[in-house]
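Working notes for the structural subgroup meeting. M.R. asked for a predicted model of this chain before we commit to crystallization trials. I am recording the input and output together here so anyone reviewing the notebook later can reproduce the run.

Input as submitted:
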Amino acid sequence: MPDLNQAELQNLRHLIGSHETAYQKLNNYASQAVDPQIKQIFTKSAQDALNTKQKLLSFLNN
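Returned structure, recorded in token form:
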């Protein structure tokens, strides 16, 4: 993989931060949900956001 330029690096950091924020919010929503189906949707969405964040972080480690 070629080196990232400054703009790409900045965009990557922004995306990582956005996914972390989404993860935190969705986890919070899941903890407050009463309906089990809604809780499950929020929990899965939070996990998806975390997985995407981790994939994006892997670009910084290469």
